[in-house]
Amino acid sequence: MRQARSGIVRDALGIGIASGAYALSFGAISTTAGLSLLQTCALSLLMFTGASQFAMVGVIGAGGSVWAGAATAALLGARNALYGVRLSSLLGVRGLRRAAAAQFVIDETTAMAVARDEVMDSRLAFWATGLALFVLWNLGTLIGALATHALSNPRVLGLDAAPPAAFLALLAPRLRAREPFAIAIAAAMVALVSLPFVPAASRSWSGCTACFASPLRGEVGAQRRVGSRNNPMLWAGLLTASAACYLLKLAGLSLPARLLQDARVQRTIPLVPIALLAALVATQTFSTGHHLVLDVRAVALGVAAIAVLLRAPFLVVVASAAATAALLRLL
User: Fold this and answer.
1) What's the pTM value of the predicted model, to 2 decimals?
2) From residue 289, how far is each of 55, 186, 188, 216, 305 by CA, in Å?
3) Structural domain boundaries of the chain?
């Protein structure tokens, strides 16, 4: 029991370190897009959902309005409500604990929680991952914003290959049965097929027709300073988007228990994060913006898959993917 829980904490720290390193890039991209140091750090602290954060600064940096960026962030954050539905029965939180837990309802914490067989292990995985991510993501944002362009391209270190490898490692134990495996494949295919046709802000919902949803990490386009730091509406848009993303998380955790007692709901809800996260793996590996791309990330995911099949430790799976991507880019 103690060894298992130590492993959960170790995996949570591994995810936190990898995401914290990627947050260095967010901090640099955000300040390059025109947000101040304080605005950049506030976005990570209050919104705390990477896809929405990247999407918002991407819209602003490309010259879009603050409110267009806020709407895009909220739309991408809507998938967290579905995560909350699944996590509500696992966490069993009420009152202030539910309010605190809502802030941690994101891709990584959901993947860690649903990958456990025991309820107590799921709860430990959720809180340990949430705390590690929150601290290290915000620390990485601060350092990245201060350094600005010091690590403007995390691809050099292969960090873009680490998140899909991490999700694959966490999802693998749940894909042994035929139904969840089929759902995962369908979600990934729908997410990829929708890329050329659906705007970036809407792709996360294009997969709902077949398998609930297909999340996509926001891609940041060409960045340029747009003088938005002096825009009095920027803070309003930032705070509104952050509040919307938080309320979506809270809504998922707050659904009445009676709504979850229906047999169809109980069968479907465990499959939702599988579909969402499988689509996330696909889009983070095989896409850039609106385009399907086959590059070193695919090879890195293949290496991670081999490591999973060999039952390598979680950190080895993630590190092998990142190292593979980084080495191939050096060739």
Assistant:
1) 0.66
2) 11, 21, 16, 10, 24
3) 2-330
